[in-house]
Amino acid sequence: MQRKSKLPEPRRLQDYAPPDWLVPAASFRFELDAVRTLVHARLEVVCNRDDIRALVLDGEELELVSLRIDGVAQPLPNVGADGLTLAIAGRHAVVETVVAIRPSANTQLMGLYASGGNLCTQCEAEGFRRISFFPDRPDVLTRYAVRLEADLRAFPVLLGNGNPGDAGLLGGGRHFAEWDDPFPKPCYLFAVVAGQLEALRDSFVTASGRVVGLAIWVAAADIDRSGHAMLSLKQAMAWDERVYGREYDLDVFNIVAVNDFNFGAMENKGLNIFNARYVLADADTATDHDFDSIAAVVAHEYFHNWSGNRVTCRDWFQLALKEGFTVYRDQQFSADLGSPAVRRIESVRSLRLHQFPEDNGPMAHPVRPESYIEISNFYTATVYNKGAELIRMMAGQLGAERYRRACDGYFAGHDGTAATVEDFLAAMAAEGLDAALFARWYSQSGTPTLTATVEHFAGDGCALLHVAQASRRHGTLQEPLPIPLSVALFAADGRRMAARDDLLLTDAENSFLFEGIDAPPILSMNRGFVAPVHVQPAPARDALAMLAAHEDDRFARYDALQQLMHSALAEGMAAGTALGHADVVAAVRSALAGWQDDPAFVAEAVLLPAESLVGDRQHKVDPPAIHAAREALRLSIRAGLADELWAVFHACRTHGGDLSARAKGLRRLKGIALGLLMAGDAADATSAAFGMFSAADCMTDRMAALSALSHSAAPERDAALRVFFERYRGFPEVLDKWFAVQAASTRGDTLETVQMLADHPLFDARNPNRLRALALGFAGNQARFHDRKGAGYAWLAAQVLAADRINPQSAARLVGPLARWRRLMPPWGGLMSDRLLAIGRSPGLSKDVREVVESSI
Ligand code: PHE
Ligand code: ZN
């Protein structure tokens, strides 16, 4: 299709050039006001080339009030759409600007904006240009001094990056606070906050004895729900010292929770700003999963202090340099806090749910993209999660000690600079990694597929494993990748005959010899999921059942049962009816039997694959067939295992305030058992769910029961939803769950419910969490989003257009579900593409939305 619109030219990695001018130091004075804030900037600029070029300062929606160069007032120049171009006479100058900005009118939530009466900033990736004229690129590192001035009553707390300095009263009911950040940083890490906030305070003594004042700033009413975030922060600080030798470097570390935020949280130097949903928790309002996410996000943002802040990115193509690395670090941290096998299962599930489809869709891009139009569209599962998998593979190749030395070398060699993926690879190469080979993972997109076969030589008691790899981009074969492999060979009776976890594929085809193979071998591939790849062919069902019972690698055992379920579902769909599920039922029975030893693992193992994962294995996705097949399998499991499931349901009892791994595992298992028991809307399960809902002493149980009930036609469903609403209407992050659980219901009237919820007085499309809860909650509902008339798609498309006028980043995220139209069967694919085309024809679209729409049509 022809590109008709005037989308800006993409930026390309290959066009990178160093900045013409640097800004080694800058000071800012903010006269804060929700309606009109004045920003006084003083930049010391230095030419960074032999020949002098004009100084170009980025700026967006800034009203220029005054301009001085080297102290001399200038006539106000024309401000172009993209900023300010200034002719500077020498190689040094002091540029002073005053601009006015409008925080309360800023619905994009980029730059300085208002949230719940407070003011805060978000600058990554290109938000600083909405605060002041500045070279808004991460390779310009600046030492910042900031003075904040505001009304004392409206904004009693004034926070900035770095260490606190002077503070005091001004005339007219105003006050000021000064902040000084000794570490040069790119402007995307700049932050200020002003508002009515209370602090939960604590302190941390670093390995070298420095005392750091810690504070978590929240609304006064939320102080009691900030303890878990504080605990997580201290754990993260200690962990990074112990595992990576990374110490904190300022006198204070502040975290602020805000209700309106585009992403999860932001690692601004010394002043992290968080989506409140990743701060606030107690047993009554947060699920165990929320508690774990808070720990992971707090750690993630804290870890950025080294992987992102002290060593930052040269340009936005290098985003995975900080994000993939930091996700890997937070995954290691979470694994150390909980059960490594269960954490691995969770991250692989999320990789398969989000990254694999992205890599197989219209927005597929390498971990280091080569071009982009709007960088906000590239904060993706590929950059974050596949990026983390690449670090995991390299760490595995090096082993713990050499990996640690390589990281030390990376931090020491690039501290205070803006680095590239090559710099990271070179640090790994210094410890022996074949970095040139691993670099391919950063530049190739698509999920590689391994085809594995075993040849058994019974007479010699050995076997040859042949593995072929293929990694395709838009159908074209790319170069072979280095793929670490962990495999085992089992006999049909469950005996493990051989295992190797140190294999490395480097060629299009590799073969490996195994000895001591005295029976026909059954292959268990990609144990521990050490490489982010697809594997084919799937083992036969009896082999999968054997592996589900006998694999000693717990990830592989989990995955065998998942694959067995997938295979039963595929067979059910092909036959158009529910065939025998006896082997699945038996495998689930034997997995369930071990629930007391490891409830968290058993819970993951017996969980049916999500409908979207089933669809990802289909040539063309047929949503109703998937839903029917999955429901049939649930029914078979319920029919075959009702006694076992009820026994588990009744035996899993915990105290809601007990956050031990075991208690969390028991709750998870109980919720999953209930979900299976609810198959077919069984009356006994409905009343058990309602009982569980009413008696729940924690949000995990309450939410598990509510989500089980949400699909039901029984009156208990409405009753539970009403009770939940009344109890939590004052808790925004809990109310998001109330919206999301209804949007995910498989009931036939869900679209109408969703339409009504969009008109609910507490629905607000300006709040990204609320919009996402309803719109993405519904778009993820495979059974109801894909109705035969396309009404679900029409509803989503309308949300995209409405949201785009408010917040393009939020809107662009809603396009994703429609952009996968090529994957769906008729009539769904066509109905989706019609909607995409209609969005594309709408006037005044943001470049965020247009980039996603145009790359998919
Ligand atoms: N850098 C943040 C993180 O991953 C994510 C983020 C990106 C937040 C853009 C806000 C805006 O830790
Ligand atoms: Zn991050």
What attributes does this structure have?
42% helix; binds phenylalanine; 26 helices; 8-stranded mixed sheet; alpha+beta; 857 residues; binds zinc ion
Explain this structure to me?
It is a single chain. By secondary structure, the chain is α+β, with helices and mostly antiparallel strands. Helices cover 42% and strands 22% of the residues. The chain contains 26 helices and 32 strands. The strands form nine sheets. Strands 6-5-8-3-2-11-14-13 form an eight-stranded mixed beta sheet, with no helix packed on it. A hairpin with a 2-residue loop joins strand 9 (111-115) and strand 10 (118-122). Helix 4 (340-359) crosses helix 5 (381-398). It is globular. The chain binds phenylalanine and zinc ion. Zinc ion (ZN) is lined by residues 300, 304, 323, 326.
Q: Uncertain segments of ≥5 residues (pLDDT<50)?
A: none
* Spatial extent as radius of gyration: 28 Å
The chain-level mean pLDDT equals: 97
Count of strand segments: 32
What sort of overall outline do the alpha carbons produce when their principal axes are compared? globular
In what range is the share of β-strand residues?
Answer: 15-25%
Distance between the termini: 7 Å
Q: Helical amount among residues, as a percent range?
A: 40-55%
Based on the structure, what is the oligomeric state of the protein chains?
Answer: single chain
Neighbour order of strands in the largest sheet: 6-5-8-3-2-11-14-13
Count every helix, treating DSSP H or I runs of 4 or more residues as helices.
26
Helix/strand-derived class? alpha+beta
Q: Please give the largest β-sheet.
A: 8 strands, mixed
Q: What hetero molecules are bound to the protein chains?
A: phenylalanine, zinc ion
